[in-house]
From TrEMBL:
Protein name (record): Sorbosone dehydrogenase family protein
Domain of life of the native organism: Bacteria
Pfam families: TrAA12
InterPro entries the UniProt entry points to: 6-blade_b-propeller_TolB-like, Beta-prop_PDH, Quinoprot_gluc/sorb_DH_b-prop
PANTHER family xrefs: LARGE, MULTIFUNCTIONAL SECRETED PROTEIN (PTHR33546:SF1), LARGE, MULTIFUNCTIONAL SECRETED PROTEIN-RELATED (PTHR33546)
Domain Pyrroloquinoline quinone-dependent pyranose dehydrogenase beta-propeller intervals: 71-285, 327-438
Length: 442
């Protein structure tokens, strides 16, 4: 009898301990996201976590005709639906839109970590296998709806970024930058891709974006880190957490900028011709740190990862230390908030969304998995000034929301953002399997 009583008491204590752990463990934000945005975000003391806060919006999809919610003065409609995890887009010279239907390659590793990752990815809508496909969308009559959807390329390896240069279409596979000949108006490419340079695959941050530099001769390729803070050693981060500059004619390259944990969206500022990027910052410093950011990038810049964040704040978890880097760690230009998962970036250049969105940058925020409450899950606009940088005291302006329903479930998650040939804003929704088009009300 005593044995049974002890077992019952043990189970009760276990349940109590589990409840206390559950209530105390997830780190709850002490600041609203707004206070960790802008040129001068509030940087609090880190709250280092051994077990990360896990709070990701469960994906339910768009049901009963639901759609995202645009800002006042704007409207939204589906440009294309029925896609398979669309992540990134590229507009061809004739106005056709290429969409990378893609996802992470199969992940290595098992055990508890692998199981947790699998559960999280499934809940977030990212557990589907990669289609490894580029699809062409054509809106021939300019009504804002793609009436043609056709397979453009297959047989790729988690493709992401795409860009044209000198009659070649360049594609960022997870393990290589490749290219194929392109003819204006082509609707299908069957040529075998040619290797330009190899890229280090594996680990986290699989997506490789590629854009054409302002010089019209070179390319920029973003390669994110394989880990959170180089916990597997810096050898595993070789040529990662970098933006690479590539000379495709000679197949040569160099590190253009470093210390960027995951520089995903890249774009050339049409006003200045300078390279800008959005970056996903590190995890497990609490729900208020560290802010993802938008910044101009120049040759030789180092933004501190993994040793420093936000221009010199040390991350005490990283070993070995690197004190000599602190004074050279560049501070980003603009904070977007903690854990918003800033992925998409495009400038307003040829957008026609009205005077309020005429000079600035649009950012696709995929949404947090490790902040309580969640952050991101929307498209925002950062107003710029005449200097070519974000305007003084500017805060992010919501452009497209409603990706979370009233219950906090994810109906969709925005990723890539580009403008279409008529000045609308296209938004890739990878778990809603759609491309949304935002335009000005008539």
């Amino acid at each position: 009898m005593r044995k049974h009583i002890l077992i019952v008491l043990g189970l009760i204590l276990l349940v109590i301990a589990a409840g206390v752990t559950y209530l105390a463990w997830p780190d709850t934000a002490k600041l609203p996201v707004d206070q960790v945005t802008g040129k001068l975000p509030k940087i609090t003391d880190p709250r280092i976590q051994t077990i990360p806060t896990v709070k990701v919006a469960k994906v339910v999809g768009w049901q009963n005709g639901a759609m995202p919610t645009p800002a006042a003065g704007l409207k939204v409609q589906p440009f294309a639906t029925g896609l398979d995890h669309p992540r990134w887009m590229y507009r061809l010279p004739n106005g056709d839109v290429l969409v990378a239907e893609t996802n992470s390659p199969p992940r290595e590793g098992g055990g508890i970590t692998g199981w947790v990752m699998k559960v999280l990815m499934g809940r977030a809508g990212a557990g589907v296998p990669s289609a490894n496909r580029i699809t062409l969308l054509r809106d021939a009559n300019g009504d804002g709806v793609a009436e043609t959807k056709s397979v453009f390329m297959t047989g790729l390896n988690s493709p992401f970024g795409m860009t044209l240069l000198d009659g070649q279409l360049y594609i960022g596979n997870t393990d290589a930058l490749v290219r194929v000949p392109y003819t204006d108006g082509a609707t299908k490419i069957t040529a075998k891709p040619e290797l330009v340079i190899k890229l280090n695959p594996g680990g986290n941050h699989w997506a490789r974006n590629v854009i054409t530099a302002a010089d019209g001769k070179t390319l920029y390729v973003g390669v994110g880190s394989s880990s959170n803070i180089a916990e597997n050693g810096m050898d595993a981060e070789k040529y990662r957490a970098n933006i690479l500059q590539v000379w495709p004619k000679d197949k040569n390259w160099r590190i253009y900028a470093a210390g960027l944990r995951n520089p995903n969206g890249m774009a050339i500022n049409p006003k200045s011709g300078e390279l800008w990027t959005v970056v996903n910052e590190r995890d497990m410093l609490g729900s208020d740190l560290a802010p993802d950011y938008l910044t101009q990038v120049e040759f030789g810049d180092h933004f501190g990862w993994p040793w420093y964040y936000w221009g010199g704040y040390p991350d005490s978890r990283v070993e070995p230390k690197n004190p000599a880097l602190q004074q050279y760690s560049k501070r980003p230009d603009y904070a977007l908030g903690p854990h918003v998962a800033a992925l998409g970036l495009t400038f307003s250049g040829d957008a026609k969304l009205g005077a309020n969105f005429a000079n600035g940058a649009f950012v696709g925020e995929h949404g947090s998995w490790n902040r309580k409450p969640v952050s991101g899950y929307k498209v925002v606009y950062i107003p710029f000034g005449d200097t070519g940088f974000p305007a003084a005291n500017a805060k992010p302006v919501d452009v497209l929301g409603g990706f979370l329903n009233k219950d906090g479930d994810a109906q969709g998650r925005p990723v890539g953002v580009i403008t279409d040939k008529t000045g609308g804003l296209l938004v890739a929704d990878d778990v809603g399997n759609a491309i949304w088009r935002v335009s000005a009300r008539g």
